[in-house]
């Protein structure tokens, strides 16, 4: 626990000022986090970090994260993200042929789905920051409150397992404790921050975001359990890898956009 807290404090001290500053430093940081998360996921599958499929997967995630101004230039040239995605799909399929199926269709599918999952998620982190730093902090606070509430409530009174086949430590009480903690944080924020949305809608959306964050956590847990790994990486001592720390974000930030709280 001590190592986990120390790592969290150091990571926050490095991350939050860049979030506050925004601009290209923030965009570059998101790109770095996305690339690391993609590589971590590929390693679970057994795809080497230094390989052509890994390079293509990282490039695909970068394409999906592409800021609006850059994407517009590609669009003006007649190439939208959908067309570029098709190019990457074809490249992966060509590679299965070139390697005489040593790189399989299953691996090609994984190398496409992984950057889609991660790249799109991080693209909404950038979109949210462009809408205003307040919304990024709102999403982060909701996510952290959910994790904290789920952990302490689950440890205190949690008995019935939530989904033991995927994550044996999570409990039903922890699930609801996470939602309650997130809503409590939102209530406190409403006293200090004026949202354009109706306060009741903010609280309802907060509950949905909390659920989404927990589903994102479970989705990555399902992946890790399937591939028989404990953590996605070792970059953050006590926390695991980048994907372990941002799996909730990949669900929360897109949903924040869909709910139109921005």
TrEMBL record:
Query: How does the entry describe its membrane topology?
Result: Multi-pass membrane protein
Q: Name one Pfam family in it.
A: CTP_transf_1
The name under which this protein is listed is Phosphatidate cytidylyltransferase
Record the organism: Domibacillus mangrovi
Q: Where primarily located?
A: membrane
Top enzyme category: transferase
Pathway noted in the entry:
Phospholipid metabolism; CDP-diacylglycerol biosynthesis; CDP-diacylglycerol from sn-glycerol 3-phosphate: step 3/3; Lipid metabolism
Look up the EC number in the record and give it: 2.7.7.41
| InterPro entries referenced in this protein's UniProt entry, alphabetically | PC_trans (IPR000374)
Its UniProt entry gives the catalysed reaction(s) as: a 1,2-diacyl-sn-glycero-3-phosphate + CTP + H(+) = a CDP-1,2-diacyl-sn-glycerol + diphosphate
Q: Which residues cross the membrane?
A: 6-34, 46-66, 78-96, 108-126, 132-153, 173-193
- List locations, semicolon-separated: Cell membrane
The record's similarity note reads: Belongs to the CDS family.
Lineage, top ranks: Bacteria, Bacillati, Bacillota, Bacilli, Bacillales
């Amino acid at each position: 626990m001590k190592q986990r807290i120390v790592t969290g404090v150091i990571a926050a001290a490095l991350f939050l000022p860049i979030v506050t500053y925004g601009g290209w430093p923030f965009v570059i940081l998101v790109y770095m986090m996305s690339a690391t998360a993609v590589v971590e996921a590929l390693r679970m599958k057994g795809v080497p970090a230094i390989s052509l499929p890994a390079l293509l997967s990282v490039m695909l995630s970068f394409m999906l994260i592409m800021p609006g101004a850059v994407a517009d230039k590609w669009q003006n040239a007649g190439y939208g993200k959908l067309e570029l995605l098709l190019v990457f799909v074809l490249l992966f399929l060509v590679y299965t042929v070139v390697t005489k199926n040593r790189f399989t269709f299953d691996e090609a599918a994984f190398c496409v789905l992984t950057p889609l999952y991660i790249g799109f998620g991080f693209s909404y982190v950038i979109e949210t920051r462009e809408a205003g730093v307040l919304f990024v902090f709102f999403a982060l606070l909701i996510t952290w409150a959910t994790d904290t509430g789920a952990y302490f409530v689950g440890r205190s009174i949690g008995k019935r397992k939530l989904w033991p086949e995927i994550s044996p430590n999570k409990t039903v009480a922890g699930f609801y404790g996470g939602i309650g903690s997130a809503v409590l944080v939102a209530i406190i924020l409403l006293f200090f921050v004026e949202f354009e949305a109706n306060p009741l809608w903010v609280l309802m959306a907060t509950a949905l975001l909390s659920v989404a964050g927990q589903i994102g956590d479970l989705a990555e847990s399902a992946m890790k359990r399937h591939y028989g790994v404990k953590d996605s990486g070792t970059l953050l001592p006590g926390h695991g890898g980048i994907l372990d720390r941002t799996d909730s974000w990949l669900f929360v930030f897109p949903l924040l956009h869909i709910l139109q709280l921005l």
